[in-house]
Amino acid sequence: MRSLFQHTAITHGVAVHVGVNFMPEQSRVDQGKWFWVYHIRLENRTGDVVQLLSRHWRITDSQGLVNIVDGEGVIGETPVLLPGETYDYVSGCPLGTPHGSMEGHYTFAREGGGQFEVAIPFFPLSAPATAD
């Protein structure tokens, strides 16, 4: 899957790059189901070893319905990033409307102690127009 990073946020020296793609082959528009795949790259620009502990997502559809998703790690992992390292993962988001958005934050820990939040940039979910 080709993914360009369209959105970036940098918080406390950790960069979060996001690329998102609508997936028509995994969507069921006739059933009111749209699906996107997003590619995240985490980049440790600090001088510290950091570990991703948890995620907090705010997913909003075009009708204003908000779904909050909290959980440990990402895709079952809690990656440790040395200074200068990156970590990539791919996940997906279904919606009951053709448009919406996602944003949130990760909670990281520094190797010497202390936790901090890293912003996940706001990014739109937008399906192309379909003919009726």
Summarize the model shown.
The strands form 2 sheets. Strands 4, 5, 6, 8 and 9 form a 5-stranded antiparallel β-sheet that branches. A 4-stranded antiparallel β-sheet has the order 1-2-3-7, with no helix packed on it. It is built from no helices and 9 strands.
Question: What's the arrangement of secondary structure elements?
Answer:
Blueprint: E1 7-11, E2 14-22, E3 34-44, E4 50-61, E5 66-72, E6 80-81, E7 86-95, E8 99-110, E9 115-126
Antiparallel strand pairs: 1-2, 2-3, 3-7, 4-5, 4-6, 4-8, 8-9
What's the number of structural domains? 1
- The CATH class is Mainly Beta
Measured as a percent range, the helix fraction is: under 10%
Order of helices and strands: EEEEEEEEE
Rg from C-alpha positions? 16 Å
Uncertain regions spanning at least 5 consecutive residues: none
Give the name of the CATH architecture: Sandwich
Report how far apart the termini are.
28 Å
CATH superfamily: ApaG domain
By DSSP, the count of extended strands is 9
Main sheet: strands, sense, barrel: 5 strands, antiparallel
CATH fold-type name? Immunoglobulin-like
Approximately what portion of the residues adopt beta-strand conformation? Answer: over 45%
Summing up helix and strand content along with how strands pair, one would put the structural category as mainly beta
Organism: Altericroceibacterium indicum
Protein name: Co2+/Mg2+ efflux protein ApaG
